[in-house]
Amino acid sequence: GSRLENVFDVNMNSYHGNNIILWKYATGLNQLWTIALDGVGNYTFVSSYQQLAMEVSTQDSSLVRANVKTNAINQKWRVIKETNGYSIKSADSGHSLRGYGDLGQGSKVGI
Questions:
Q1: Exposure string (b/e) for 6-42, b if CB count within 10 Å is 16 or more?
Q2: Is 64 exposed, middle or buried (0-12, 13-18, 19+ CB in 10 A)?
Q3: What 3-state class would DSSP assign to 63?
Q4: N or C: which end of the chain has fewer CB within 10 A?
Q5: How far apart, in whole angstroms, are the C-alpha atoms of residue 3 and residue 35?
Q6: Beta strand pairing status for 20-24 and 33-37?
Q7: pLDDT tens, 102-111?
Q8: 74 by DSSP, 3-state: which?
Q9: CA–CA separation, 71 vs 89, rounded Å?
Q10: How far apart are CA 107 and CA 95, in angstroms?
Q11: What is the pLDDT of residues 12-57, one digit of tens each?
C-alpha cells in the first residue's frame, strides 16, 4: 500500500500569516491539525501549534497559509469524496487544495 510521505506543516519559527508547506512527518505540533465541522458542511483546519487556522491568503489568493482563526470564509474548507480518495476544496472559491512544484519537502501549498 501507499503511505503519506509529506504532511501540512506550519513553520515553528514563524509568525501568523506564513505559508503552509509540505514537510516530512516528524510528530511536531506544527504538523498536527484539529478538524472541526460547522453546521453547514464546511471544515476548519486548526494547527496544534499556536492554534492557527489554515486559510487562503487574502494577499495572494493562490497560496494557503496559517493565520489567526477568524471563522471567515477563506478559512472554511469542503472535504469531497472522489473516486480514489478525498479532495479538500476552498469553501469560498471551490478550488482544490494542492502542493506546488515537485511536492517534495518544503513545497508550498495552495489552491
A1: bbbbbeeeeeeeebbbbbeeeeeebbebeeeeeeeeb
A2: buried
A3: strand
A4: N
A5: 21
A6: unpaired
A7: 777 888 899 9
A8: helix
A9: 16
A10: 18
A11: 766 677 889 999 999 899 999 999 999 999 999 999 988 999 999 8
What is the C-alpha R_g of the chain? 13
pLDDT, tens only, 81-110: 999 999 999 999 999 998 887 777 888 899
Indicate whether this model's pTM tops 0.85: yes
- The cell numbers describing 17, all together, are 500569516
Which grid cell is 53? 487556522
